[in-house]
Amino acid sequence: MWMRDIAQTLAKVFKQQGYNVPTTNCPNPMLYIAGLFDKGVKMIIPQCGKIHKFDNSRMKNVLGIEPRDAKDTLIDMAYSLIEAGYIKRSKKYKGPHAAAEEAQEQEKKEAEKKEGEESEEKPKENGDVKEGEGDDLKKETEGETDDKAEIKKEEEEKKSEEKKDEKSEDKSEDKKDEKTEETPAEK
């Protein structure tokens, strides 16, 4: 991975969070001129243009370790530098978890869009109903069943009240009968 690739990877994530990540290349002759005045740049000049190759196949085969993706590692390193205070936090800084959550939300939205496109393209088969088409009918039938249930409850309440009234009337009539029966016997 070249330095420019590293800068572009970091810029994708951190420019949105208020960090300026330079992604332009400096031509080699400019490095030589800058190396005359800056010792730090002079140390980098011997590394320019060299290709370093590393092989991790033995680590994978012998130890069974799967290395992480270089882009994920770079982003995690940058977040840890910010969290530790080596890089000043910007006002728009969201933190490592916020970026992961946003990425998951974007993936969900993309998946929903794809599902929506697939369902629209797919023709109706055997009377299948697309989402939203039968909802009005369902709402109407649900409303009717709710109304019917309320009417039934009211009717049952009325019947139970009538039964209570009848029972209370029967009891009062029984008491009247008892009183009338007791009065002649006493005389």
UniProtKB/TrEMBL annotation:
Protein name stated in the entry: Uncharacterized protein
Region of interest called Disordered, as start-end residue ranges on this chain: 91-187
Lineage top rank: taxon: Eukaryota
Lineage: Eukaryota, Metazoa, Spiralia, Lophotrochozoa, Mollusca
Ranges of biased composition (kind: Basic and acidic residues): 105-187
Organism: Potamilus streckersoni
